[in-house]
Amino acid sequence: MLGLVALYIAGRFAANLIADQFGFHLYPRLEPTMHRLILLATICYIILIAIPFMPGVEIGLSMIAFLGPKISFLVYVSTVFALVLTYTVGRFIPARYCAAALGFVGLTRAEELVNRITPLNAEQRLVYLTENAPPGILPFLLRHRYIALAAAINLPGNVLIGGGGGIALFAGISGLFPFPAYFLTIALAVAPVPLIISITGL
């Protein structure tokens, strides 16, 4: 989290420097244009963060850095909305398509696993995966999957494991995260940095 805050501060400093160099001031006549710019940036941000393997956190911090701390709540709401949207898409993707995709890229063991757990409900899937997972950290992560989900969402460089969109999509496809618990986890997981920025007004 400290790294993300440092990234935000650096971006904000750069934005202020650029604004000073170009003598930019928000005159009343520019407000409608700025509002349209914020709306367009928000829509683009939602689309980008919902796409797997996109660096959503970094984009959100860039928006806050260039548009100011007052935009942090909008970025927070947009982030939660995007991750819920991608999760919902994942819930409606038929498991057979996921299995076929895994088989297409040569991951036959993963394909067999998906086909094996597809008929099971969420609780049965969790029990099966926990009992059959290789010994080590994976069973621990399955038992504490909500903590693992929150940590993965906030992990710097999580684009390597799918980014926020990919993590949300997998959470939906897996069937291991009921929507109310998923929503609460995401809402809390993405709150700290926008909350810090809103309180401190950096």
How many strand units?
0
Instruction: Let me know the average pLDDT.
Output: 77
Shape designation: elongated
What oligomeric assembly is this protein in?
Answer: single chain
End-to-end separation in angstroms reads: 15 Å
Radius of gyration: 20 Å
**What is the total domain count?**
1
Biggest sheet, open or closed, and with what strands and sense? none
Q: What is the succession of H and E elements? A: HHHHHHHHHHHH
Can you tell me the residue ranges where pLDDT is under 50 for at least 5 consecutive residues?
Answer: 1-8, 17-24
Q: Count of helices?
A: 12
- Overall structural class, as computed from helix and strand content, comes to mainly alpha
Q: Strand fraction band?
A: under 5%
What percent of residues adopt helix (DSSP H or I)?
over 70%
